[in-house]
Amino acid sequence: MQRIYEARDLLEAEMLIGMLANEGIETFLTGRHLIGAIGELPAAGLLGLMVNDDQAERARQLIAEYNDAELLPGDEPDGPVSYPGELIC
Questions:
Q1: pTM here?
Q2: pLDDT tens-digit profile of 4-35?
Q3: Where do the domains of the chain lie, and which CATH numbers do they carry?
Q4: What's the 3-state SS for the chain?
Q5: Residue 44 to residues 17, 25, 30, 84, 86: CA-CA distances in angstroms?
């Protein structure tokens, strides 16, 4: 297995796991149970997505495509955007 991505938070991790599952890629999430210890552990680097070696390249490609996605015209959020440059679902 290879660690292919470091999720920002549990919501992002679960969304990416679902996306990869739809593509037939089984994903294991490391660090899920460490989130409750934030404050005692470093806040970054706890959550990692891992996949089988033979699926790692495809999974990285799918995540890169997701991160590079742009909003469709008319799908812009109303009001100020808290995270410029990030896709809002």
A1: 0.70
A2: 999 888 889 999 999 999 999 999 999 876 66
A3: 2-68 (3.30.70)
A4: CEEEEECCCHHHHHHHHHHHHHCCCCEEEECHHHHHHECCECCCCCCEEEECHHHHHHHHHHHHHHHHCCCCCCCCCCCCCCCCCCCCC
A5: 19, 25, 13, 20, 18
